[in-house]
Design goal:
Layout lengths: L12 H9 L7 H11 L4 E5 L5 H11 L10 E4 L3 H14 L8 E4 L5 H10 L3 E4 L1 H10 L9 E4 L2 H6 L3 H9 L6 E6 L4 H10 L4 E5 L4 H4 L1 E7 L5 H11 L4 E5 L3 H13 L4 E4 L5 H13 L4 E4 L1 H4 L7 E6 L6 H8 L9 E7 L4 H11 L4 E2 L5 H22 L3 H14 L3 H12 L19 H5 L2 H19 L11 E5 L5 E9 L9 H11 L10 E3 L4 E6 L4 H9 L1 E2 L2 E2 L3 E2 L49
Parallel strand pairs: 1-6, 1-7, 2-4, 2-5, 3-4, 5-6, 8-13, 8-14, 9-11, 9-12, 10-11, 12-13
Antiparallel strand pairs: 15-16, 16-18, 16-21, 17-18, 19-20
Helix pairs in contact: 2-3, 3-4, 6-8, 8-9, 11-17
EC number: 3.6.4.13
Main location: cytoplasm
Function: DEAD-box RNA helicase involved in various cellular processes at low temperature, including ribosome biogenesis, mRNA degradation and translation initiation.
């Protein structure tokens, strides 16, 4: 273990203060070797694998040399992807939190160029971006490189692989000759070596071998899951896995708050950790985690950098990281001090390629994770409940309560066992011992998928387009493939039911009564004919009678609940066919399910209406 600390490396006081507040204790080998070289103003050619701390290795020294008076760009960072550009920009921002007037600007394709133009006009000392968009700004003359003092090429071999090397050379040629240049690459192919020889000259060479011992101590697995089912899958895992402390990694700051709140509502001790929190709150959260007062932290990559808590036994990658280095950083939060760790990553079908890239980078296969079954979840909850009861009997004075229960049993002639069962039923309502859990599809990547993902990706994209078109084209009432179990009308006739999907859910603060009220009022359907309603995070399902007229379907598609349109469609996930039930709308009925034409209302776009002022919302 090196005895060098960040203070001895010579970085500036504001940068050192930020580093210490982030919890960094000792520099990694690449940081220890690179920072002094870059502080001296020398060019650097670095060969380092992912997970070695390259971002801080170049960000800390260049921030230490910033001229606070100069508002034009002083440092330029080229990255192969926009995701990495965002991450590097966030890292610069966190390291420069105590530098007055500091601004960093990420620029990349696929984003509004107007906002980038305004950002460059206001002034930014550090610009991070992809080669293509950098060239675009150079052509527009919106990016001025005349006073650039430092240029960093991050993951140069990846830029070569993606075909950006010519763009990179064009940008290098436009920087001042005296500009200090740094190149980091995991490998050193001939094309990268040629660029280094041409533009970096007699650069200092730093070569760091990636040690995978930390990764090897961690049991890694992945779970193929649909995006909207992640929270249900996470809840099952938390119910069954025996963990001490846990970090759940997400991509955005807003997700940390959202997921932490949902976990708290489900009875788990959790808190968010992101860059918007004050240092006091951050330190308090970490201390609570260390002391066992908190079990789960939901964090972003930058917020968790340098976090070292020995009791972290599990890391959940709720969102797949944007790059392989982040994955290594994330799972490195567990398996500390020689202990075993466990890392589980949620992967959607479209992220299979990212999974294989991580496997290749870490040189380790990431096995499939078996999602706990309903029986396993129930069994675990029952065992915990038993332990809680036994512990309470041993540690709590229950004399008065014992007398009370005996009195109730005697007064009402109730068996004590039955009375205890009633108390157990009442106690488990918030966290049912025998839950009816949502079915979760966990498709696994086949060997064919894992060897060549082009065909599966194309097929999935076609299916996605087909599914979207079903929901987005209300030009006719859809025909269901299967009806739900029939309900009965006033004459005892079976009314065949169909499950529909609507695009409002828990995240919109919707409740079943909101859905019933909207459909009953707008569709003129008796509430008795509105069947089972199931709420999910981003959507809901509702059972309605078969035979919905086209004009009613068109109308319901536009009806709003909680200020969001229903966008009703057949829920193909539960559709099938049942021919025994009679259609609901043949012949006369005292109370037909659908009563004539749909009702015009202010929340629908089906009828012209006078414009009205709406309250401002965040939606």
């Amino acid at each position: 273990m090196s005895s060098v600390d960040f203070a001895s490396l010579g970085i500036s006081a504001p940068v050192l203060k930020a580093v210490q507040q982030l919890g960094y204790e000792q520099p990694s080998p690449v940081q220890e070797a690179s920072i002094p070289i870059l502080l001296e103003g020398k060019n650097l050619l670095g060969t380092a694998q992912t997970g070695t701390g390259k971002t801080a290795a170049f960000a800390l020294p260049f921030l230490s040399k910033l001229d606070e008076k100069q508002k034009t760009p002083q440092v330029l960072v080229l990255t192969p992807t926009r995701e990495l550009a965002i991450q590097v920009a966030e890292a610069f921002q966190s390291y420069a939190k105590h530098i007055k007037g500091f601004h960093v600007l990420p620029i990349y394709g696929g984003a509004d160029i107007g906002g980038q133009l305004r950002g460059l006009k206001r002034g930014a000392q550090v610009v991070v971006g992809t080669p293509g968009r950098m060239l675009d700004h150079l052509r527009r003359r919106s990016l001025d490189l005349s006073q650039i003092k430092g240029l960093i090429l991050d993951e140069a071999d990846e830029m070569l692989r993606m075909g950006f090397i010519d763009d990179v050379e064009t940008i290098l040629a436009k920087t001042p000759p005296e500009c200090q240049r740094t190149l980091f690459s995991a490998t050193m192919p001939p094309a990268i070596k040629r660029v280094a020889d041409k533009y970096l000259g007699d650069a200092e060479v730093v070569s760091i071998e990636n040690k995978t011992k930390t990764v090897e101590r961690i049991a890694q697995s992945h779970l193929m899951v649909k995006g909207h089912q992640k929270m249900d899958a996470l809840t099952r895992i938390l119910d069954v896995e025996q963990f001490d402390g846990m970090i759940i990694f997400v991509r955005t700051k807003s997700s940390t708050l959202e997921i932490a709140e949902k976990l708290e509502a489900r009875g788990f001790s959790s808190a968010a950790l992101n860059g918007d929190l004050t240092q006091t709150v951050r330190e308090r959260t970490i201390n609570r985690l260390k002391k066992g007062q908190l079990d789960i932290v939901v964090a972003t990559d930058v917020a968790a950098r340098g976090l070292d808590v020995e009791r972290i036994s599990h890391v959940i990658n709720y969102d797949v990281p944007y790059d392989n280095e982040s994955y290594v950083h994330r799972i490195g939060r567990t398996g500390r001090a020689g202990r075993e760790g466990k890392a589980i990553m949620f992967v959607t079908q479209k992220e299979t390629r990212m999974l294989r890239s991580i496997e290749k980078s870490t040189r380790q296969p990431i096995s499939s994770f078996n999602l706990p079954s309903n029986e396993e979840v129930s069994g675990q909850r029952v065992e915990q409940f038993k332990e809680q009861l036994v512990g309470m009997c041993k540690s709590t004075k229950l004399d008065k309560f014992h007398s009370l229960v005996k009195e109730v049993a005697a007064e009402h002639d109730i068996d004590m066992t039955l009375l205890a069962a009633a108390l157990a039923f009442e106690a488990q309502k918030e966290r049912p011992l025998f839950p009816k859990m949502v079915a979760i599809d966990t498709p696994r990547a086949s060997n064919k998928d894992r060897s060549n993902d082009r065909k599966p990706r194309e097929r999935n994209e076609r299916n996605d387009r087909s599914d979207r078109s079903e929901r987005q084209r209300p030009d006719r009432a859809p025909k269901a493939a299967r009806d739900k179990a029939p309900m009965t009308d006033n004459e005892g006739n079976d009314v065949a039911m169909i499950t529909y999907r609507i695009e409002v859910g828990r995240n919109d603060d919707v409740s079943p009564k909101n859905i019933v009220g909207a459909i009953a009022n707008e569709a003129q359907i008796d509430a008795q004919f509105i069947g089972h309603i199931k709420l999910h995070d981003n959507h809901s399902t509702v059972d309605l009678p078969e035979g919905m007229p086209k004009e009613l379907f068109d109308h319901l598609y536009k009806v709003r609940v909680c200020q969001k349109p229903l966008k009703i469609s057949v829920d193909n996930g539960t559709a099938g066919e049942q021919r025994d039930a009679k259609p609901a709308f043949k012949g006369k009925r005292d109370k037909p399910a659908f009563k004539g034409k749909p009702k015009a209302h202010r929340g629908s776009d089906s009828e012209p209406r006078k414009p009205r002022k709406r309250p401002a919302t965040d939606r």
